[in-house]
């Protein structure tokens, strides 16, 4: 087959509605103005391998949420938002500043924000109320698109409704709010479960994490893992990120300190061996017009068809998504064959 006749994996391997939002694997939160500006500068340096979420909830002074929203709008519409991967966290839907914050954000920055994060929904009804309000104010602001929405699962009711929340058509990602979730148990879960080791050991915390990943994958949405507060322990962070990605099924993770970004991205990146295997299989499959092929791996012949091609395509997508600006991670032939349209992005 000629290069012009080779069909792209996204045109062959997936049915309509199978697409999952293509989000960076790291979501970096910052709320103080100096740190917000430094985070945007770091994103410009490293490339869009992480999102920057400008925090209008915990990052805003109490009583100063609306003023903080104006600052977020200023930054989101500035030249520092180089890649269009800047989002904002607002206050909960029942907070008095919820609507005023949106009135400050949407008319000015609604077209430039990558998403809005909705914290602390107590149940599906809270999420629906927030979506209705956001969409009404977006219409008043004459936005030309439906602004993508993320939500934090950090209450008992939200965890109970996780599958319904993930299935909501306006949601593209659910995050786990570890600290609030543990606190909601009124001392029944020890403080150690908030730590880098305990959060992967306590049964109630693990159950919550797995419910969220299951809900998101069932609905074709992105599950985002909670923070690790031990931000100076890079080895512990790396291990936590690897557990979140390779054991619990998360495809995205929060960062709360710039030093956490690179270890998270590295942990969520495929290994060189995984990339090489996926590239070999998909290049051969494309040459065979996506018919079944035989591939030799670790001394054994293996049969592959479209079911496994989908997995290997996702490996290459993740490798492309986690490639820092200082050097592409994928082989040149793979970039040219499958990612040429994003080469200049």
Q: Rounded to an integer, what's the Rg over CA atoms?
A: 21 Å
Please give the count of helices: 14
How many strand elements?
10
Q: What characterizes the major β-sheet?
A: 8 strands, parallel, barrel
Averaged pLDDT: 93
Strand content: 5-15%
Strand order of the largest sheet: 1-2-3-4-5-6-7-8
Beginning-to-end CA distance, first to last residue = 29 Å
| Fraction in helix | 40-55%
Assembly annotation: single chain
Give the overall silhouette: globular
What is the helix/strand order? HEHEHEHEHEHHEHHEHEHHEEHH
Content-based structural category:
alpha/beta
- Low confidence ranges: none
Task: Tell me about this structure.
There is one protein chain. The protein contains 14 helices and 10 strands. It has helices at residues 9-12, 33-46, 65-76, 98-109, 124-140, 156-160, 162-167, 178-183, 203-219, 234-246, 258-267, 272-287, 306-321, 332-338, and strands spanning 26-30, 50-55, 86-89, 116-118, 149-153, 171-176, 222-225, 252-255, 293-297, 300-304. The mean pLDDT is 93. Strands 1-2-3-4-5-6-7-8 form an 8-stranded parallel barrel, surrounded by 5 helices. A two-stranded antiparallel ribbon has the order 9-10. By secondary structure, the protein is of the alpha/beta class.
């Amino acid at each position: 087959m000629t290069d012009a006749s080779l069909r792209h994996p996204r045109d062959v391997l997936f049915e309509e509605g199978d697409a999952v939002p293509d989000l960076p694997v790291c979501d970096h939160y910052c709320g103080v103005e100096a740190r917000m500006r430094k985070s945007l500068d770091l994103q410009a340096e490293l490339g869009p391998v992480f999102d920057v979420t400008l925090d209008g909830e915990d990052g805003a002074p109490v009583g100063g949420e609306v003023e903080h929203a104006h600052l977020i709008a200023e930054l989101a519409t500035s030249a520092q938002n180089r890649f269009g991967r800047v989002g904002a966290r607002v206050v909960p839907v029942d907070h008095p500043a919820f609507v005023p914050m949106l009135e400050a954000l949407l008319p000015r920055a609604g077209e430039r924000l990558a998403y809005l994060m909705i914290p602390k929904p107590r149940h599906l009804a809270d999420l629906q109320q927030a979506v209705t309000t956001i969409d009404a104010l977006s219409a008043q602001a004459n936005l030309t698109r439906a602004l993508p929405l993320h939500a934090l699962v950090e209450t008992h009711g939200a965890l109970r409704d996780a599958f319904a929340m993930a299935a909501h058509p306006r949601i593209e990602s659910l995050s786990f709010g570890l600290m609030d979730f543990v606190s909601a148990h009124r001392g029944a879960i020890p403080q150690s479960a908030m730590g880098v080791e305990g959060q992967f050991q306590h049964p109630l915390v693990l159950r919550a994490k797995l419910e969220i990943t299951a809900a998101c994958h069932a609905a074709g949405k992105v599950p985002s893992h909670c923070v690790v507060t031990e931000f100076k322990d890079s080895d512990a962070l790396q291990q936590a990120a690897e557990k979140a990605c390779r054991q619990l099924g998360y495809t995205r993770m929060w960062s709360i300190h710039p030093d956490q970004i690179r270890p998270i991205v590295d942990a969520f990146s495929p290994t060189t061996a995984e990339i090489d295997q996926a590239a070999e299989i998909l290049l051969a499959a494309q040459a065979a017009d996506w018919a079944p092929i035989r591939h030799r791996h670790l001394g054994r012949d293996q049969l592959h068809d479209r079911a496994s091609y989908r997995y290997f395509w996702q490996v290459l997508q993740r490798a492309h998504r986690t490639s820092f600006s200082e050097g592409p991670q994928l082989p040149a032939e793979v970039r040219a064959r499958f990612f040429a349209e994003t080469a200049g992005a």
